[in-house]
Structure formats: structure tokens, C-alpha cells
Design brief:
669 residues, single chain, 14 helices, alpha+beta, MZB, 23 strands, DrmB
């Protein structure tokens, strides 16, 4: 449970004593707020940094509107509830601010609430280091939020002469403390410079931060202006430096403005811009036409989101009243009988399962479950002509070119698609392989750990789906599974899993998380196609992304071997059509041949083509590098892991070891 505001520390949590500012200080795209700068992350502005607040603060923004928009997607909402609890009743978009027309103030009260963080700043004029209330916030131009900054009034400068004007600008102090439980705190500069003790000369001493090497924070030196003691920040680096830091985490969550009651983890030093400061835990689905049963489930979700549980409890037995309230809230009940509505009301009022029951059910959850319905829909060609456009999905079965490689069995043009993405929470220091690996490490988005809604985005776009011959994939996979190359990849994956910084993977069997060879094949093929398509589609390579359907048969699901290359945007009703145009038979045949031939060569060969991980190496790729197969961060769903061109084509090896490439020799294409 989290503590209240009254228990916050008045020194390190300096914002409590600062003057509140409600003005706009910046902007961000919905996709960046979902994957890069969500609640708990640090966003750099031109002159200082902020942290988007928890969902409790967002509620106060939404309460300014008579109607709160929601995103209806039962498949994704069910997964969110399985992880966070049945009290989650909706997926909500970000409270965006529409473009102003003339002098209109429409939407000026919307936006993402955020707190200044870090709350210790450093004066660029005199190196003074202090908490937020010691600095002055200025922004004389309300229509230029990029001019907002904190300044040090009456800055004496480094030469002792006060600077004229509003003062010297201040910048965030870069050093922070974090732990594996996701807490984040200010660095205790005063305790650090005084080696864990109080200053003998002053209760709240003035500090200075001086750089020994410009631009390198590890070279910073902290000096106390009151007693003269100094100490370098380089001492706090590494495992030895960690022993000199506080030995117990305070449990601080700056995005919630609160503390956890207890945290036994040991804090570690982290820099403000570190890539492992914030990892979003997200899931996404492609919206497919819903069955009648799914439509009824969606009605229950809509009633919960629009009416709330209290109103449903009060009027649940009066179907006529429920219908009137639903209609007044914009819910279309056409096609639903009174029995359907009564069933939806009953489902909405079903008691929530206990946390123990929910966690037990989550133990075996696999993210592949979100992909299976999409794969099954793409297998049913008879449904393509019956698809309603309202679902945002329009697909067309394309004719295969007679000269297209026979191991590509199907081509489907995705003329229109909609993808819904939701965020569950986040972690620090180490990204969890799955959301359910260690639920205790997932940092909550609300104080009570039981959010009633989560942020989500809708992306619209287009794509191409390619399906490989399933029988050929099965036979090829069997021939690969017993090779020394696959054993080397498996051993490297196990070493990588065991060496992760936190304890996320301690109780997980590494082999259960190693994708099958068919995934490596599909993943490598997707990257080669993205590189080739970027030169013909009119989109940059970073705008194209992959969705891999590659798993073996289990008692719960059939085998799959397909990939979707798509481009989506959250601020557009569609895209340009350049990607779908590549699905034309002749164009696709030429594109596939060109992509495979290009993948047969790399400017780093023969080093790249013969790369095999061996102990103590733990990298998760083989014959793949930035020159031939790596894709941008926005394109790849596995961060350029699980790639090997040898699974795609027959490649010469400097070691003499060869494996059969799925598409054979590039010379035979």
C-alpha cells in the first residue's frame, strides 16, 4: 500500500513546497507516451525534465468533460483484467488537446499532468546544487512552452559577480537512485558529500556540483560551501560504489507522489538518461470482426465504462432504465434483446476473483494467446468478403504469382487495419520477458494498485501478410533442431537469461522462452523484407513494423508460420496505400527475390556469415548485424534478437558447418 502526501519527505520531495504550475510545458505523440514517456518515465524538455503522473491525476483532467471516450476492444481488455484485476472497466485514449482555431480555447484544459523530476537542479552559472523551491520558474510567453525554464535568481556566477537579468538557467541533476522493485529517488547529495553524516556547519548546507570533465557526469564533484568537504561522484559507480550508497530503498514512486511502506531492495545509482530507467509493459491486438458472443461481451464492457458499477447495481433489475441510460451515453443497443442486456448486466456485476486465483491463472499465460485469433481469422478466406468495415479491418486474398517461391503459400493484402495498444505498468533496471513473470515487479499506475482504466491508443494503417508452407516449415524445423548451430543458440540464450541484472528470470526455465527455429526464420525474413520494402513503398524503414505468427503445435493451438509487415499511425485515419500496392503478384515476386538475394551478402562477411555464439558469449543472434539484418527499434518486436540469415538461405561458412536454409541457395532464386 502506498503512503499519503502528508508522509512525504519535505527535503528530497521538494515539489511539495514549490509553487504549482498548471501551464502547458510541452507535447508528445500518443505512441511515445505509450512506449517511451509514459507514467513514471522521465521526459526531457528543452530546459528541464518532467515525469508524467499516475492515473489518479489523469482522472481530474477527465472530470472536466461530460463524456469520457473509451476504446472498445474486448480481447485486449480481457487480458488487461487478467493481469490487473476485474475492476478495470475500460481502455481510454490520451486526453489530447485539439488544434485551436483562431482565439478558441477548446481543449486548453486537457493534457497529461506531470511533475518536475528530478527535483534537484544545478545552476549553469555558479554550479549551485539545490532543491526545486530554491529556483524560480519563468515562462513569459504562454504560447511558447519550449521557453519554460527554472532560473537561479541573483546567481553570483563563478567569478563572484552577480549576473544581470532574470538569473542563470538551471538544469536537472543527473544522478538518481533506483531498485529492482521499480522505485526511483533523488540522489542524497548532502549525505553523500558528508559521508552519511550531517554538515557540521549548517542544517541545510549549500552545495556545488562541478564537472572535472565537461559533459561527463561521472567526473562530477560535489562540494559543500558551508564546511568545505568534497566528494567525487565516480566513487558511486559500479559494485564497489554501490556499497557506499544507502543500503535500503525508501520505496519512492515520484509519478504517484508517494512511497511504498516497505522495500528491502538495495538501491543502485542510475543516470537520468539511462535506457534501463523505464521499460513499458504493453500488449497490442489487431482488431478483427467480432462474433455475436464477443459483441455481447463488448456490451458488458461498454456498460461498465459508461454507467459505472454503482449505477448498474442500482438499476440492474430495471432493464428499461438501463437501456435509457445506455442510450443517453451513446451506446447503440440495436440488435440486442432484453435478455442480452440482462446478461450483460449480470456479467458486469459478477464478483471479481481473488488475487490468488488470478495469479494462479496467470502462471501459464503466454502472449501468443493474443495472436492466435488473428491467425485463425486470416486462415478463413470465406470471411473476408463478409467483413464489416466498422471494425477497421479490410483484407483481400491475393493471387500468387506462378514464379513466386513455392514455399510462400499465401499472400493477403491488408488494405485497412486497426491496432489497439494498452499499457499495464512498467519496470526499471530490467525488462520482464512477459508481464506475468514476476507481477510484484510491475510498477503500479495508481496508488491503490487497482486501476479502473488503463491508457490505450488506436493505430490505423495497412500491411501485407505472407504465409509460409506449413508442411515445409515443419520438415525444415526438424532438420534444424538437432544441429550444432541451434544448440549454440540455445546455450547462448540460457546464458543470457541467467545473467540478467534483476531477479526477474530466476524462476523461469530459459528453454521455455526460446522461440522455435521457425520464429527465427520468420523474424529474419521479416527484417529482410522491411529493408527492401522501404525502398519501394514510400515509407521509411522505421515506419514499417513486423508481427510474427510463428509457433509450433500444442494441445491448445495449431501450428503457425506467417508474418505481417505493416505501417500504422495513431493520428491518421489511414495510410497512403504504398505498402498494399506491393502485394500485386509481379511486384511482390520481384521484391521477395531482391530481398533474399540482398540477404545472401553482407559487407561484414565472412565474419557475419559464420558468427556463432560460444561460451562466455550470450548474444541472441547469429549471421545478422547492422549491415544486413538489423532493423530500427520501432520496427522490431524483439529488439533485434533471434535473427540468423543461415536459417533463411544456404550460406558458406568459414568453419565448414552449414545448415539448410529454408529458401535454399540465393543463386537458384
Amino acid at each position: 500500500m502506498l503512503s499519503t502526501d502528508e508522509e512525504l519527505d519535505p527535503i528530497s520531495d521538494a515539489e511539495k513546497n514549490a509553487v504549482k504550475n498548471r501551464a502547458k510545458v510541452g507535447s508528445a505523440r500518443p505512441s511515445s507516451l505509450l512506449y517511451t514517456y509514459g507514467p513514471g518515465a522521465i521526459m526531457d524538455l528543452p530546459h528541464f525534465s518532467i515525469m508524467p503522473a499516475g492515473l489518479g491525476d489523469w482522472d481530474r483532467i477527465w472530470q472536466r468533460r461530460t463524456h469520457i471516450p473509451t476504446i472498445i476492444e474486448p480481447r485486449l481488455l480481457k487480458v488487461v483484467r487478467d493481469h490487473l484485476g476485474r475492476q478495470v472497466d475500460s481502455l481510454r485514449p490520451y486526453p489530447w488537446q485539439p488544434q485551436r482555431m483562431g482565439m478558441s480555447t477548446e481543449g486548453s484544459d486537457l493534457g497529461i499532468p506531470a511533475r518536475v523530476f528530478p527535483q534537484w537542479l544545478r545552476c549553469t552559472g555558479c554550479d549551485y546544487l539545490g532543491p526545486l523551491p530554491r529556483f524560480h520558474y519563468t515562462n513569459t510567453q504562454p504560447f511558447r512552452p519550449d521557453h519554460a525554464e527554472f532560473t537561479h535568481k541573483n546567481c553570483p556566477g563563478r567569478g563572484g559577480k552577480p549576473k544581470k537579468g532574470p538569473g542563470s538557467p538551471a538544469v536537472p541533476a543527473q544522478h538518481l537512485l533506483t531498485c529492482t522493485n521499480g522505485h526511483l529517488d533523488e540522489f542524497p547529495y548532502s549525505l553523500w558529500v558528508h559521508r552519511g553524516k550531517k554538515c557540521p556547519k549548517a542544517e541545510l548546507p549549500d552545495l556545488k556540483m562541478r564537472d572535472a570533465n565537461v559533459g561527463k557526469s561521472v567526473g562530477s564533484t560535489i562540494a559543500c560551501a558551508s564546511c568545505g568537504q568534497t566528494r567525487g561522484m565516480a566513487e558511486a559507480q559500479g559494485s564497489i560504489g554501490r556499497e557506499k550508497l544507502p543500503q535500503k530503498c525508501r520505496g519512492r514512486h515520484p509519478h504517484l507522489n508517494a512511497f511504498d511502506k516497505e522495500c528491502e531492495a538495495k538501491p543502485a545509482l542510475i543516470m537520468m538518461g539511462a535506457s534501463n530507467l523505464w521499460f513499458a509493459s504493453t500488449q497490442s491486438v489487431i482488431v478483427i470482426p467480432r462474433s455475436d458472443a464477443e459483441e455481447k461481451d463488448a456490451l458488458s464492457d461498454r456498460l461498465r465504462a459508461a454507467l459505472g458499477i454503482e449505477q448498474i447495481k442500482q438499476f440492474g433489475s430495471q432493464i428499461a432504465v438501463i437501456k435509457a441510460l445506455a442510450t443517453a451515453n451513446g451506446i447503440d443497443l440495436e440488435g440486442f434483446t432484453d435478455g442480452d442486456i440482462a446478461a450483460a448486466v449480470g456479467d458486469a456485476l459478477t464478483p471479481a476473483e481473488s488475487d490468488e486465483e488470478r495469479n494462479k491463472k496467470l502462471e501459464g499465460w503466454d502472449p501468443v494467446e493474443l495472436l492466435v485469433p488473428e491467425w485463425r481469422y486470416l486462415q478463413k478466406k470465406t470471411l473476408f468478403q463478409q467483413q464489416p468495415n466498422a471494425d477497421g479491418l479490410m483484407v483481400t486474398e491475393m493471387t500468387r504469382d506462378s514464379d513466386l517461391h513455392p514455399r510462400i503459400s499465401r499472400v493477403v493484402a491488408v488494405n485497412k487495419m486497426k491496432k489497439v495498444n494498452a499499457v499495464f505498468g512498467f519496470t526499471r533496471l530490467d525488462e520482464m520477458d512477459r508481464v506475468n513473470d514476476l507481477p510484484g515487479r510491475l510498477v503500479t499506475l495508481t496508488r491503490d494498485r487497482r486501476p479502473k482504466w488503463v491508457p490505450a491508443t488506436e493505430d490505423r494503417g495497412e500491411g501485407i501478410f505472407l504465409q509460409l508452407d506449413l508442411a515445409a516449415v515443419d520438415n525444415w524445423e526438424q532438420s534444424i533442431s538437432n544441429t550444432p548451430l541451434w544448440e549454440a543458440h540455445r546455450a547462448s540464450h540460457e546464458r543470457n537469461f541467467r545473467r540478467r541484472f534483476s531477479e526477474t528470470a530466476k524462476d523461469v526455465e530459459p528453454d521455455s522462452r526460446l522461440p522455435a527455429p521457425r520464429y527465427w526464420l520468420l523474424h529474419t525474413l521479416a527484417h529482410t523484407l522491411i529493408r527492401e520494402m522501404a525502398m519501394s513503398s514510400g515509407y521509411g524503414a522505421a515506419s514499417l513494423s513486423e508481427r510474427i505468427y510463428g509457433w509450433t503445435r500444442t494441445p491448445q493451438r495449431e501450428a503457425a508460420a506467417g508474418l505481417l509487415i505493416c505501417t500504422t499511425a495513431s493520428d491518421s485515419a489511414g495510410t497512403l496505400g504504398g505498402l498494399v500496392a506491393l502485394s500485386e503478384p509481379d511486384r511482390l515476386r520481384r521484391l521477395v527475390v531482391a530481398a533474399l538475394r540482398r540477404a545472401a551478402r553482407c559487407s561484414s562477411d565472412p565474419v557475419c556469415a559464420s558468427r556463432v555464439p560460444s561460451d562466455p558469449e550470450d548474444f541472441l543472434h547469429g549471421a545478422a548485424c547492422h549491415c544486413c539484418a538489423f532493423a530500427s527499434e520501432t520496427s522490431c518486436e524483439k529488439a533485434n534478437r533471434f535473427l540468423d540469415r543461415r536459417f533463411l538461405l544456404d550460406l558458406p561458412s568459414a568453419t565448414g558447418e552449414t545448415v539448410p536454409g529454408f529458401f535454399g541457395s540465393a543463386d537458384a532464386l
